[in-house]
Amino acid sequence: MTVATSHRHRKVAEPRASLGLKQSRLPRWTLPVLALAAVGAGCGTGLAAGLDSTLQWGLIAAVLFVVVTYLLTAAVEGTRQAKDRLATSAVWTAFLLAVVPLASLLWETVARGTKVLDGYFLSHSMGTLPDAMPGGGVYHAIVGTLEQVGLATLIAAPLGLLTAIYLVEYGRGTLAKVVTFFVDVMTGIPSIVAGLFVLSVWILILGFGPSGFAGSMALAILMMPVVVRSTEEMLKLVPNELREASLALGVPKWRTILKVVLPTSIGGITTGVMLAIARITGETAPVLLLVWGAKTINNNPFDGAQQSLPLYVFQQWQQGSDASYDRAWAAALVLIAFVMVLNLVARGIARWKAPKAGR
Q1: CA separation (Å) from 321 to 109, 212, 272?
Q2: Half-sphere exposure of 122 (CA within 13 A, CB side)
Q3: Strand, helix or coil at 338?
Q4: Which backbone phi and psi does 306 adopt, to 5 degrees?
Q5: How many alpha carbons lie under 13 Å from residue 73 in its C-beta half-sphere?
Q6: CA torsion angle for 256, 259, 265, 269 (degrees, to 10)?
Q7: Model-level pTM?
Q8: In whole angstroms, what separates CA 346 from the centre of its chain?
Q9: Nearest-CA neighbor of 198 among 282, 260, 283?
Q10: What secondary structure does DSSP assign to 62-77, as a single string?
């Protein structure tokens, strides 16, 4: 009787306890409505105050949205939930404020770059055409960019990969610390410094002339620390159990690295290399110092001046005519598309080589 009675009392008491845990909640449509109201209030405040910049309107709307969301949530749901909503609103607001300039830049580039971007523009060079005249193309700059970035990758990728393997698998002393220190220093080197270094050694001291290969060496200096760092982190993610299992079977260490460690981390390594390539593709200062630019097609990166996409954009914008402005925007759009393709390829390789779940 006692057990049955206590069981019956527990059944009656449970709903009452659960009712005490319920609290008032804002409807789901509250935040979208507040966002729209904040945008309207920001625009109205900007117009009333005579502010010409839409960025200022957006900042006013963002501040109003965060403050009103916090106050309303605190009044309805409590202070604890209001703090959580405040952090969430601040994160979303910061995200939108970061995306708006990027979206605006992309929209402006597409709108202005498509004026002259066609098959003729992609398949012709400037030749003897004056920069102030309409016409011409970007083919010579595309060829130069592909050759210079390709040579830089051939120089930096193997050196960066081998350096990272040494630091992770063999580096246990003063030399490893010194290499790590210099890699960290090289990560923050400005591109103009790398260009000046190659200029002083390759052109002024050794006496070679400007060429695409000279620019590639400067780009390789900028690319190498990125490859080292990304590869080093990927190699550290490989479980030590895999290395120990291979070594326990009598496999030499070099073969363990070649057959076990590298295949396991190849997806991340490839992604790091592709991102490093995307990072150096838009560099202008080293190319300006070492390649000099050319209006005609030069397929030989080891002899003579050569053009590249970033330098082409800079030189066309420097001319100051309407035709050169159009070509500069079109070349910038081509450069953005090239970098975007590299990033998409890197993400695709990372997803393709990622460990499959459920195995």
Answers
A1: 17, 28, 39
A2: 11
A3: helix
A4: -145, 160
A5: 21
A6: 110
A7: 0.82
A8: 11
A9: 283
A10: HHHHHHHHHHHHHHHT
Q: Are 127 and 135 in contact (CB under 8 A)?
A: no
pLDDT for res 15: 46
Instruction: Name the H helices within the chain.
Output: 2-20, 30-49, 54-76, 79-113, 119-123, 139-165, 174-187, 191-198, 212-236, 240-248, 253-256, 262-281, 285-290, 309-319, 322-353
Q: How many residues does the chain have?
A: 359
Structure tokens of 311?
């330098």
* Buried b or exposed e, range 202-214, using 16+ CB within 10 angstroms: bbeeeebebbbbb
Q: What is the DSSP letter of 89?
A: H
Q: Cα separation of 224 and 268, whole Å?
A: 16
First vs last C-alpha separation in the chain: 54
Tell me if residue 320 falls in helix, strand or coil: coil
CA angle, corner 174, sides to 269 and 258, nearest 5? 30
Look at residues 275, 305, 351, 101 and name the one whose alpha carbon lies nearest to residue 213: 305
Contacts of 131 (CB under 8 A, 6+ apart): 315, 316, 319, 321, 323, 324
* Tokens coding 245: 């299992």
CB 342 within 8 A of CB 272: no
Distance CA 210, CA 300 (A): 12
10-residue averages of pLDDT along the chain (359 residues): 49 45 77 88 87 83 89 88 88 86 91 94 91 91 95 96 95 91 91 95 94 96 95 93 93 93 90 90 93 92 94 93 94 94 84 65
Whether 219 and 152 have beta carbons less than 8 Å apart is answered as yes
| Residue type, position 279, single letter | R
**Whether the Cβ atoms of residue 194 and residue 218 lie closer than 8 Å to each other:** yes
49: tokens are: 């105050």
Kindly list the distances between the CA atom of residue 96 and the CA atoms of 68, 90, 103, 340, in Å, as whole numbers in the listed order. Answer: 18, 10, 10, 21
Cα-based distances in Å from 142 to 275, 281, 291: 19, 11, 14
